[in-house]
Design brief:
Blueprint (H helix, E strand, L loop, with lengths): L16 H53 L2 H19 L4 H9 L6 E7 L3 E8 L2 H12 L4 E12 L4 E10 L2 H4 L1
Antiparallel strand pairs: 1-2, 2-4, 3-4
């Protein structure tokens, strides 16, 4: 009888576990990527659909609002009326102040010119004497609605023998007039 002697090295069995594990992980990765891509595609489809629908709804809303608010001429008239109202509210009431300025005017005197803005009134007054011009200045300083009064010039006109005086009247702001 002969004994079988095998001097060849023993072949180890190949470990197939890592190959199987990597194959399963690769398959799962591809499956996850495909699923994410599908959900992203579906999300983009829904978003574009909703965006298109929103644009349609906004266009319809704009059209309905324009029909409800009237034609363009009516809208323009409303806009101009609002602007006019704002301007009228912003301009101080000058009529009572001008009436007070005219009431204090000396006899044989008259206003040649006046110019007004938000807080000042420029007056050019024709008087018979320089004393009347100074008296008018003093009477203006006594009016409570006026913040300050300045005389810029008193000029004597030789040809017709009268005085022309230029005054600047500073009005009080509306909050101060209360």
């Amino acid at each position: 009888m002969l004994i079988d002697i095998n001097l060849l090295p023993v072949k180890e069995k190949k470990n197939n576990h890592p190959k199987i594990l990597f194959s399963i992980l690769g398959f799962l990765s591809v499956l996850v990527l495909v699923t994410v891509a599908f959900f992203f595609w579906e999300y983009e489809q829904d978003r574009s659909f909703l965006s298109e629908r929103l644009n349609q709804e906004q266009a319809l809303t704009t059209e309905l609002q324009s029909e409800l608010s009237g034609d363009e001429e009516f809208q323009e008239a409303e806009r101009l009326e609002a602007i006019t109202t704002d301007i009228q509210e912003a301009i101080p009431e000058a009529t009572p102040v001008l009436e007070e300025l005219l009431e204090n005017l000396p006899s044989r005197s008259h206003v040649e010119a006046y110019q007004t803005d938000q807080q000042t009134v420029e007056l050019t007054v024709r008087t018979s004497s320089n004393i009347a011009a100074v008296t008018y200045f003093q009477s203006l300083r006594e009016i409570e609605e006026l913040l300050d009064v300045d005389i810029h010039s008193i000029s004597y006109m030789d040809d017709e023998e009268y005085f022309v005086t230029t005054y600047t009247v500073h009005l009080q702001e509306e909050e101060e007039q209360v």
